[in-house]
Amino acid sequence: MEKSSEEELGLKLQRKIPKNVQIQENVSQEPKYDALQYALFLCYGNLTPDFESLIQSLSSKSPADGGAHIRVVLMNLDAGIFLEDRNRTFAVLNEYWAIDMRDISMLSSQLVYHSQTVNNAGETYLEICYNISEYLSYDEDNILSLESSLTLNVSKPGDMRLSHEYEPLYFRYNPVTGQTTYVLPNATLENRSLLNSIGQYLSKSAPEMHPFTMHTVILSQTLAARSKEIDDLYRRLLWIEHQIYQGSIFQDTNSERFTRYIQLSHKLSRNLITLEHRTQRDGSHIDRLLRDLDCLWKLENVYHSNKSKDSYIDSSIHERIRDCFLCLKESALDRERQIINLQRKTQIFVTLLYHLITGHDSAINLRIASETANVSHEAKKDSTSMKIIAGVTMFYLPATFVCSLFGTNFVALDTNGPSDPNFVVSKFWWVYLAFAIPLTGLTFCCFWFWRRWRGGHLLPVEGEKYTV
């Protein structure tokens, strides 16, 4: 059972690890990098085979003795952080390379750039630590609706969960041995593939490498990723602009589609703000690396002038690296200008869509007003008809009452006598009044009680309607 479980773990590792990343499992089959060598640690529950021996072998020889000019340690924590393996890895780096990864983890927990000159065992190092990128994510399933009450407290909202993931980079240069060390504790797949392809290229012909070469390579990769994001956002803005130029948005009467357009525009605006922040941070990294490039050159000259030795860094390559950083800085500034331009376009589109929605709502209100006017006109016709009917009724009502009164048995016309005909009133005429007056009073009383009962039931309903 134990053997089968180990085989399953090996198959999982083969599926999860990219094909273009060389794993240090079989040292004899790997290419020997003269200028660049790797130690790879994948956190899948155990250390990569031979990781400790590779760290030890990379620290055993200096470049003058045939060792690597640049040492690169790549770590991948995609499958989760395992405390025992992480602590063991930190202990290995501290034991053989005198690198305290706990300090690096503390510095890389925030978006900071830190550089310093360290003296250790009589040797002077230049150390640099910064975050290549930051990834912000949130739990959508844990976000309640807008109608829910937010939980506001000192720490954070209770209905939103944010998570930050950083990609820190640690750099160290030793002017005594001319050896450079790069440690990426949470290297992305893109950077792992890029550095691996560079290592395969350098294994064929290893040129002289400047200590800051990998900084330029990684920052170029980062700015290229920013360019892809800008192109994607620009493509979406062009689609909205194309809809506006075609006039399909102006002809659209579906308010839900207008809402989707506005949501898309606001999402683009939010992504542009985040992208602007990242691009500005890349430019800040380049500026500080240019400053540390001068510090590196001064440190190199001071040490080798005192020791009367030739410098490990060629001046022409050093100036070429400076030119690369200046080009990267111009590239970052150009991307920042593109982002500002896209932000202005997005704001114009949002304003235009708001105006279109306002015009659409005004047209709907005009149509409702026109239909209301038609309804009121028809109601006015009905009211006029009722007034005419009421007028005719009032005109004939007195005559109808008189006819009804004389049609009763209380009043009669006597034509049987010898004299002229005359009216005869019954001696029971008071019976009519005895029934008519009480019935009229009873009718008015019933109407009054009904109005009072109806008013008492309507008042609580009106009060609940206007209660906030």
Automatic annotation (TrEMBL):
GO cellular component entries: membrane
The UniProt entry, under SUPFAM superfamilies, shows: Magnesium transport protein CorA, transmembrane region
**Keywords of the record:** Membrane, Transmembrane, Transmembrane helix
Which InterPro entries does this entry report, sorted A to Z?
CorA_TM1_TM2
Membrane topology, as annotated, equals: Multi-pass membrane protein
Localization terms from the record: Membrane
Keyword Metal-binding listed? The answer is no
Has UniProt tagged this entry with the keyword Membrane? yes
Membrane-traversing stretches: 388-408, 428-450
Q: Any idea what this protein is called? A: Uncharacterized protein
